[in-house]
Design a protein that fits this description.
mainly alpha; 206 residues; single chain
Length: 206
């Protein structure tokens, strides 16, 4: 999949979205936080992750993420590095004890493909748009607020709090400076904001 230039330029900003509003002391406190006492909190494997997003973004499971337009992301392309097993072909009977170095890269790759897929579908059929609504007006404060509501509701299945709304608004304003205010720029902003949430720790764990 070839990533458009505006998207490639903005990807570096996405990795810092969750820390945009955190002062250094808060960041240090986050790093020092103890592990969750809830044993049910764990990294989703690729299949669970894609099924959740398929339902949330209304894309058929078999169409949501295909590497090279051919290989299913969770079942074939990134099966082991996303926590899956393959007892029949490569004799891996249980998930890896630790995530591989390639796991974060694969996870981001899958999230980007999924969000690109949803935005492309929205552009092709605006009447059934889920995230990007071409006729929703210029990307002003109200547009950013509405997009934030849609993203949090769809991807994280909850509302955004005040701090999250502020961070997302700042993130989108920064993207606007790179992508512009045209419909294409709005689509790119929607894609990148979708990617930021879909690749977040909250989306990756359950």
């Amino acid at each position: 999949m070839r990533i458009p230039a505006p998207i490639a330029l903005a990807l570096t900003a996405i990795l810092s979205l969750s820390a945009l509003a955190l002062p250094p002391t808060a960041a240090r406190a986050q790093e020092a936080a103890p592990a969750s006492p809830d044993p049910r909190v764990k990294f989703k494997d690729g299949e669970r992750y894609l099924r959740d997003l398929a339902e949330s973004l209304e894309i058929p499971r078999k169409e949501i993420c295909l590497e090279l337009s051919r290989y299913d992301c969770a079942d074939k392309a990134f099966r082991i590095v996303l926590g899956g097993v393959d007892p029949y072909e490569i004799r891996i009977m249980q998930p890896l004890d630790q995530a591989s170095l390639a796991s974060p890269i694969a996870f981001d790759r899958v999230a980007l493909q999924v969000c690109s897929n949803r935005v492309a579908r929205d552009k092709a059929d605006p009447a059934t748009a889920v995230l990007f609504k071409p006729a929703a007006g210029r990307p002003d404060a109200a547009w950013r607020e509405a997009l934030t509501d849609r993203l949090y509701d769809r991807i994280l299945r909850r509302g955004a709090d005040a701090a999250e709304r502020q961070r997302m608004a700042g993130f989108l304003e920064g993207l606007e400076a790179r992508t512009g205010r045209s419909p294409k720029g709005q689509a790119d902003q929607t894609l990148l904001a979708c990617f930021a949430l879909a690749s977040s720790a909250e989306a990756a764990f359950y």
